[in-house]
Amino acid sequence: MSDEPDLVVDALGRHCPLPIIDLAKRFADAPVGGTVELLADDPAAPADVAAWCRLRKQQLLGARDLPTGTGQAFLIRRTH
Fold it and tell me: What range(s) does the UPF0033 domain occupy (predicted)?
C-alpha cells in the first residue's frame, strides 16, 4: 500500500472558501477508498475541512504542518 495520496489539491495562497471549493471540484477524481491531500494555508482551513468531511460523510485521516512552516496538508479518504 502506498503512502502517497491518490490526488493532491494545492490551494496554497487561496482564501476561504476557495480551498473547500477546490477540494469539492476535484474530489471525485480520486477513487472510492482512495485519499486526497489538500494543501492549504488559509487560517479557516482546519475547521472548514473538518466540517466539509462531516457534511459529505468523508473520512478526515489527519493533518500535518507543511515543511515550509506555512500551511497544512489535510489527508481525506473518499468513502463513497
Answer: 9-33
| 16 catalytic per annotation | yes
Q: pLDDT (tens digit, 9 = 90+) per residue, 27-61?
A: 999 999 999 999 999 999 999 999 999 999 999 99
Q: Which of 12, 16, 61, 66 is catalytic?
A: 16
Dihedral sign, Cα of residue 65, residue 66, residue 67, residue 68? negative
Instruction: Give the alpha-carbon dihedral of 38, 42, 65, 35, to 10 degrees.
Output: -10
Distance CA 76, CA 55 (A): 13
Answering whether pTM is above 0.85, one says yes
Q: Which three cell numbers stand for residue 52?
A: 466539509
